[in-house]
């Protein structure tokens, strides 16, 4: 009993000391809600397994303890119990099959536009990372932010991810899972926000000494408030230039910055998987300014 208590205490302490964060179990969007449901399902099934195994262990220890037997007792030679052997092999196999099916179904759900938002035009956001900051381009509104995201609720979100440095991983735990951002390709992450909330996003992939502070602020708001923010940005923010953007790419940490225009015209993202540049969601000025000899493009 003392050993069991010690193991439990060590587990709890290690969870706190490793910075265990349970925001993934406080979802604010359909993708995150699906993932939270899978986590709770896994916890429930594993808890039942642990309780059953512990109960059997206690039963065996009590029933077959050495103190009940004579000192000269010799256990009989047995070949094994085929029923028990079948159970201890079949149960893990069934558990693996079950979780495999659940994983395939839920993975297909979280990789696509949320079902209840299908048919709506998504808000496209180009999210690019550099050492150690995040750049967010809104081509639909021709604005750009650094290290913070304002997002409307009740609308599908489509993030185009890539990197100007090492591989990073874009993650907003309360909206959905993480996905890699790389320097030679664009990956797409579908999310959506159901509720108004403030949350934190981060780079979830180690990328050097500044990794720990490679975070960004996220706020979801009603679409009316989001459009008001866009108007405010266009009325007060300075335009982003190639010179300014090149300075932003230098290693270091920055606060939250806001610009009109985007860097997509003079520093375009890599080619899409199809081998064609993704001009569909760029503004006219960005598309005209695009040059394919950029170091992050392919021939």
Give a written overview of the molecule.
With 299 residues, the protein is of the alpha+beta class. It is 35% helix and 21% strand. It has helices at 2-17, 30-63, 82-110, 223-236, 242-248, 284-288, and strands spanning 123-130, 133-138, 143-146, 148-152, 156-163, 168-171, 179-181, 187-192, 197-203, 215-221, 238-239, 257-260. A hairpin with a 7-residue loop joins strand 6 and strand 7 (179-181). The protein starts with a helix and ends in an 11-residue tail after the last helix.
Secondary-structure blueprint:
Layout: H1 2-17, H2 30-63, H3 82-110, E1 123-130, E2 133-138, E3 143-146, E4 148-152, E5 156-163, E6 168-171, E7 179-181, E8 187-192, E9 197-203, E10 215-221, H4 223-236, E11 238-239, H5 242-248, E12 257-260, H6 284-288
Parallel strand pairs: 1-5, 4-10, 11-12
Antiparallel strand pairs: 1-2, 2-3, 3-12, 5-8, 6-7, 6-9, 9-10
Helix pairs in contact: 2-3
């Amino acid at each position: 009993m003392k050993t069991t208590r010690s193991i439990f205490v060590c587990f709890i302490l290690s969870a706190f000391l490793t910075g265990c964060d349970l925001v993934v179990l406080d979802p604010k969007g359909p993708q995150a809600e699906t993932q939270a449901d899978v986590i709770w399902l896994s916890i429930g099934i594993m808890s039942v397994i642990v309780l059953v195994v512990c109960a059997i262990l206690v039963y065996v220890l009590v029933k077959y303890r050495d103190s009940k037997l004579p000192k000269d007792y010799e256990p009989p030679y047995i070949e094994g119990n085929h029923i028990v052997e079948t159970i201890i092999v079949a149960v893990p196999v069934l558990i693996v099959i079950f979780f495999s099916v659940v994983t395939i179904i839920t993975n297909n759900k979280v990789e696509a536009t949320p079902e209840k938002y299908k048919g709506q035009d998504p808000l496209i956001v180009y999210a690019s990372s550099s050492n150690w900051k995040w750049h967010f381009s809104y081509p639909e509104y021709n604005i750009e932010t650094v290290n913070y995201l304002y997002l409307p609720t009740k609308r599908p979100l489509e993030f185009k991810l890539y990197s100007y440095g090492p591989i990073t991983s874009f993650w907003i735990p309360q909206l959905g899972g993480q996905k890699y951002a790389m320097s030679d390709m664009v990956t797409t992450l579908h999310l959506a926000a159901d509720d108004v909330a403030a949350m934190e996003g981060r780079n979830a992939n180690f990328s050097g000494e500044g990794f720990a502070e490679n975070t960004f602020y996220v706020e979801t708001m009603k679409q009316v408030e989001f459009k008001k923010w866009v108007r405010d940005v266009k009325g007060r923010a300075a335009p982003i230039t190639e010179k300014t953007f090149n300075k932003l790419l230098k290693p270091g940490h920055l606060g939250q910055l806001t610009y009109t225009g985007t860097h997509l015209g003079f520093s375009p993202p890599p080619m899409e998987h199809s081998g064609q540049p993704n001009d569909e969601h760029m503004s006219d000025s960005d598309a005209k300014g695009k040059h394919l000899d950029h170091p992050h493009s392919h021939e």
